[in-house]
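User: Okay, second chain of the day. Same drill as before: sequence in, structure tokens out.
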Amino acid sequence: MSVFDPDGTRLPIKIDSTTNGEFVPSPLPKVNRVANAAALTRADDIRKSLGVSRRDFLVSTTGAAATLMTFNEVHAAAGARGGYFDLPREAAYEMAAADSVLKGSEFVFDIQGHHVSPIAKWKNPGISWAMLFKQIPGAQCAPPEKLGQYGHLDCIGRDAFVKELFLDSDTSMGVLTFVPTTEDNMPLSTAEAQATKQIVDALDGSERLLLHGRVIPNLPGDIARMPELLKTWKIAAWKTYTQFNEGWWLDDDKTGIPFLEAVRSSGQKLVCVHKGLPLPPMGDQLQFSRSDDVGRAAKKFKDITFIVYHSGYDDTIKEGPFVPGSGKGGVDSLVQSLLDNGIAPNSNVYAELGTTWRTVMKDPDQTAHVLGKLIKYVGEDRVVWGTDSIWYGSPQDQIQALRAFQISDEFCEKYGYAKLTPQIKAKILGLNAAVPYKIQPKTLQRKAANDALAKWKAAYAEQPDPSFMTFGPKTRGEFLRFWKSGGHT
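Assistant: Same drill. Structure tokens below.
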């Protein structure tokens, strides 16, 4: 679950130890535990003064504002200086003030979404993913007697994905992507992903969901399968993992170059590559989590666009100011690679924020450094939005946190970071990713304004019921069961 008070109330801004299942959860730092407790106390005090129930207060934007403002106070007291959530003082009490920051009409394009499919194959005991999620307490979205045929898989399946992403958040459009597995052991097949797309996309032709094509080029047959994958599913981009199956580089002669040449030949020249968040087992594979090869590949294949998923972020490395030549991993390895290969800002490399934003938003100094560096070195037109939901539940809290976050004047002056204007935030939330995915945001928003999903959402808004839950592994034990299940081997 996410954060609970003694009565079971969850905070609308979910700061906990959940991961996306690709890296070991870290214990929640004391400052965040203190902030969560203080936010719950503050919510109770305010809702009593307003004469509303705790649930009604927390579901409103004033509840989110009060939570973020409490985080500001606790982090400032702990010495944070890099950034803060910029909200009017009255936002915790007045909905109009909270709405002025936390609501928006931006085109929100989430290019990293996940769910699993509880279809017939899950009943086969030889497929371990079903048992995997039953072993994760956080995946229990309802009392056992109310769960469907597939138990906890119902919590992270198609219906939950549509609700959490499109009904409980301001997401306009998304991309459904895949995890690093072999073709035969994918927890979400391309066919099942297409079925979700058909549900979300409206009958009038508006398109709300795009699909990736999973390619692990050092697995037998994956490169050869690319033309069929593109023809059958009309995939919007290729998704790959350089750490998987012993590891490889985007520019190595054995695997990377043949893969990128196949990308070029396919005509679909958009590559989404996982970087950072080292996948276990570590060993020699750890080096392939770095982004050293991104700049080299982008220089050699200038006609291919690269979206670096997670922006190279590594949860084991504390993000600070970029130091040229330091050899540091994380986001710095991406920045260094671009500089070393003459890849100027706003070129053919994009930085995606899935899991990265959600993880660093608990630490305002790291948040300021990550956003500041990416905008400065990758470019304000090349930082793109992704949330890794459904692992983190609805991404609405991530959207609200970005709308409110501001880098401090001190950090802007000291490190040359840009202030986060509404224009830059709108670019990050959707306008930037629309370019490589060939989306016309205004056209999409016009069509979507009255499509089936919009009408469904309007009806739901009459009595919203957000879960404020997260679903990925939250402890080292849950994470190890996740990997030992065989789903990623």
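The longest strand covers residues 209-214.

User: Thanks, on to the next one.
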